[in-house]
């Protein structure tokens, strides 16, 4: 605002030959200094505001991630929606922050500008004031309508990302049945609907740019951040799992008293539930949980971890006791085999070598081209089923926890490997975990004589509990279960193909910066989708799904 005033004085100086010459130099120096000072202040402001924005974005992403971990099982939330919330909506909050100052600075600038114009042109400036007075109500109507369009567009974007995520997770089935074109058509149809909403939204913004320059930009970002905040608030309001696991000092390290659990607390007898669960485990006990398929073995472990809904009863795990969980489906990260085992823990050479030996990984390391520094693909794509489970188990053993909760880790390994792991890891006399509390879900009969307590589940209830010989002699359910297991071959063969296929391919990325606008976005999305669906399986074996999803979410946020 100072520049026009100084410029006016400079013009008067050029018209007044009696004014001292140094006034002209002074006016020029003042104009230059004002521009330099304005640039410095704006640069400092942008630096501070973007630094604040990055901190806010990180906090939002962390909060969204933590929320996703405690969501109740009956919430209808897709992976695509969570990806969009973390990558797009949180970014829009960051982008909006520099425009916040427009909320107060623009009206002040308008008032000052009108005052200066009034001094120059007099009463005729009221015509401009009247035009702005008419423009603001129109802006409000456009904002309301554009916000509705933006909200519908984000719903379509969530649907599109959910379908893409499902395709990537089941890409082998898609390619096996040659469903690429069908899914391609489905996604393109959703994208076209999304583009139609985006077209209307963009046209409205163009109308806003006619009267003023800064206000439409601020209104644009205000609409986007408003939709983003509403979506995040809706996500944060979703029902969470009630934290029911107590961590109190107790003589027992794990205990469940009269526990009733369900996967969905709101339904009436429509979801699987555990009833009348009473379980008491002391320090160092080796507990085996057995039962038929669907009897509730994995659900009982989930109840101990606090992942089910508790209907009644109490669950307590001793305060300070560290828990290691080995899932039935091995969880492998896209990093080296060594880092998969260490999992952020400090490297201890002796313990590390001991864990590799006891988990029967020494021979496998000799077959890997890089030993334990071999890069493991996402979901352990270059490992066999047995190797993935043994790496999963090695991570838990290396953690040095107090309680080990294991969901049938021996099902994916050969019988002789299972015997080796039983002797070197689980056994109460010779195993590396002999002094730890072990809770093992298993259908392997050779394990049962070596455990301290056997828990037999039937239809979500504990039908019997005791030592091996005691149950074998006195319990009909246990004896029937043993007969059932011995009548069929329950051994699962481990994939012995240790030839590791490491295919490094170069994927030509599309040049998405060739043009801007909705037409470019539509064409690039169509081409990218077609390329991804037609890519060979080796591409999906080496590329993380999250990386591909980001290409379809944040990179296409027009």
Strand % is 5-15%
CATH domain topology of the largest domain:
Rossmann fold
Level of helix content?
Answer: 55-70%
Q: What would you report as the Rg, rounded to the nearest angstrom?
A: 33 Å
The CA-CA distance between the termini, in Å, is 34 Å
Number of domains: 3
Helix and strand run: HHHHHHHHEEEEHEEHHHHEHEEEHHHHH
Strand order across the largest sheet: 6-7-8-4-9-10
Please state the second-level CATH architecture of the largest domain: 3-Layer(aba) Sandwich
**Strand elements, count:** 10
Largest sheet: 6 strands, mixed
**Count of individual helical segments:** 19
Please report the first level of CATH classification, the CATH class of the largest domain. Answer: Alpha Beta
Q: On the 0-100 scale, what is the average pLDDT? A: 78
Structural class, please?
A: alpha/beta
| Cα shape | elongated
Which stretches of 5+ consecutive residues score pLDDT under 50?
A: 200-211, 488-515
CATH superfamily of the largest domain: P-loop containing nucleotide triphosphate hydrolases
């Amino acid at each position: 605002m100072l520049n026009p005033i100084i410029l006016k004085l400079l013009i008067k100086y050029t018209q007044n030959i009696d004014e001292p010459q140094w006034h002209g130099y002074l006016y020029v120096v003042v104009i230059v200094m004002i521009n330099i000072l304005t640039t410095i202040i704006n640069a400092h402001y942008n630096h501070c505001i973007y630094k604040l924005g990055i901190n806010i974005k990180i906090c939002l992403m962390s909060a969204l991630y933590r929320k996703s971990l405690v969501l109740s099982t009956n919430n209808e939330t897709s992976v695509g929606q969570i990806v969009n919330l973390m990558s797009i909506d949180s970014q829009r909050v960051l982008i909006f922050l520099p425009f916040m100052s427009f909320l107060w600075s623009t009206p002040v600038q308008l008032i000052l500008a009108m005052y200066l114009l009034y001094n120059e042109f007099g009463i005729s400036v009221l015509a401009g004031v009247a035009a702005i007075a008419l423009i603001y109500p129109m802006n409000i109507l456009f904002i309301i309508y554009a916000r509705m369009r933006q909200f519908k567009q984000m719903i379509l974007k969530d649907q599109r990302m959910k379908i893409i995520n499902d395709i990537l997770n089941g890409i082998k089935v898609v390619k096996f049945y040659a469903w690429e074109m069908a899914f391609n058509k489905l996604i393109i149809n959703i994208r076209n609907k999304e583009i139609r909403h985006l077209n209307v939204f963009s046209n409205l913004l163009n109308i806003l740019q006619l009267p003023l320059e800064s206000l439409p930009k601020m209104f644009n970002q205000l609409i986007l951040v408003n939709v983003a905040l509403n979506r995040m608030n809706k996500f944060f309001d979703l029902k969470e799992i009630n934290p029911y696991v107590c961590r109190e000092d107790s003589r027992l390290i794990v205990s469940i008293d009269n526990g009733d659990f369900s996967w969905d607390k709101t339904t009436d007898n429509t979801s699987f539930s555990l009833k009348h669960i009473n379980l008491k485990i002391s320090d160092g006990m080796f507990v085996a949980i057995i039962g038929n398929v669907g009897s509730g073995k994995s659900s009982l472990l989930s109840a101990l971890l606090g992942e089910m809904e508790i209907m009644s009863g109490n669950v307590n795990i001793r305060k300070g006791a560290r828990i290691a969980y080995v899932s039935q489906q091995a969880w492998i990260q896209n990093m080296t085999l060594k880092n998969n085992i260490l999992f952020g823990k400090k490297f201890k050479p002796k313990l590390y070598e001991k864990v590799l030996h006891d988990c029967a990984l020494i021979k496998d390391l000799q077959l890997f081209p890089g030993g334990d520094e071999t890069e493991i693909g996402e979901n352990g794509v270059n490992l066999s089923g047995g190797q993935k489970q043994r790496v999963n188990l090695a991570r838990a053993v290396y953690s040095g926890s107090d309680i080990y909760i294991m969901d049938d880790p021996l099902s994916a390994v050969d019988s002789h490997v299972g015997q080796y792991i039983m002797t070197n890891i689980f056994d109460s006399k010779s195993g590396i975990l002999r002094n730890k509390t072990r809770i093992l879900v298993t259908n392997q009969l050779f394990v049962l004589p070596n455990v301290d307590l056997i828990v037999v589940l039937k239809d979500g209830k504990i039908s019997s509990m005791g030592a091996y010989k005691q149950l074998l002699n006195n319990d009909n359910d246990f004896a029937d279960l043993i007969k059932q297991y011995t009548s069929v071959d329950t051994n699962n063969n481990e994939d012995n193909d240790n030839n590791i296929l490491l295919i490094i391919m170069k994927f030509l990325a599309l040049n998405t910066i060739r043009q801007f606008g909705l037409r470019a976005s539509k064409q690039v999305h169509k081409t990218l989708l077609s390329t991804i669906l037609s890519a060979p399986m080796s591409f999906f074996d080496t590329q993380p799904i999250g990386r591909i999803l980001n290409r379809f979410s944040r990179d296409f946020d027009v």
